[in-house]
């Protein structure tokens, strides 16, 4: 039964540049705590003498100009192991710049899984995840520390930006590891055999997702000459349901290994789409709330 509840046998990390609005990303993992000015107790996050993400937590207090009634929190997952040369990172940085030009209130959290790979799922992890919370041992709770923190960030996010290169026609291992850490039974999905042949249902809902990708080759779109080799976009579209995503957008750079005019044109097209995507996300929350008698954005 356990394997069936792992969403097809699946089960990520890196911590985060967590940046509050209005400031550049900074080196290392940081985390934004609204209304808090004291660093949290980090003792409980020290596992077996190793530094965890939480031991590198910093607090940034830079409130933005508020133009929405409800804050829109954004979670950025950077999956590339490369630094500034990474095209997916460049897309993510440009997207964040466009997001900030709208002065949208809310936090921006970045988990840099590419540079700080998450732990892989182990037998101990599976045993802990499928043990009721009130029956877990201290060791089990330690094993789930990263997963708990990553899931908490996902819950708080209204928008998730997944920026990742294509590796061997699919997700990089570190990005997949993050997915496996956050898609967890009784946390982001439920399992009930009374539902018949489709016992799995998502717990989270209403989120927006932006997928930003880069690839060395080209033609990975549905009608493209390499559509059958694209195991990145279909995979993300499938798991997005269990991340609580209801609407999504994407921008992709191709031809990287060719380095010719087609590459430059592909890059220009991808970057040009980002401001429009930002506006569509912002508008989507206005559309959603009109029928509810309240507006989230003006």
TrEMBL record:
Cofactor binding, note field: Binds 1 FMN per subunit.
Top-level enzyme category: oxidoreductase
InterPro entries registered for this protein in UniProt: Flavodoxin_fold, Flavoprotein-like_sf, FMN-dep_NADH:Q_OxRdtase_AzoR1, NADH:quinone_OxRdtase_FMN_depd
Top-level taxonomic group: Bacteria
Location of the Flavodoxin-like fold domain: 73-268
Pfam families named in the record: Flavodoxin_2
Cofactor(s) required for function per UniProt: FMN
Entry EC number(s): 1.6.5.-, 1.7.1.17
Record keywords, A-Z: Flavoprotein, FMN, NAD, Oxidoreductase
Keyword Transcription: no
SUPFAM superfamilies listed in its UniProt record: Flavoproteins
Binding of FMN, residues: 80, 86-88
Catalytic reaction annotation: N,N-dimethyl-1,4-phenylenediamine + anthranilate + 2 NAD(+) = 2-(4-dimethylaminophenyl)diazenylbenzoate + 2 NADH + 2 H(+); 2 a quinone + NADH + H(+) = 2 a 1,4-benzosemiquinone + NAD(+)
Subunit structure: Homodimer.
Chain's role: Quinone reductase that provides resistance to thiol-specific stress caused by electrophilic quinones.
Record family assignment: Belongs to the azoreductase type 1 family.
Full protein name: FMN dependent NADH:quinone oxidoreductase
Species of the source: Actomonas aquatica
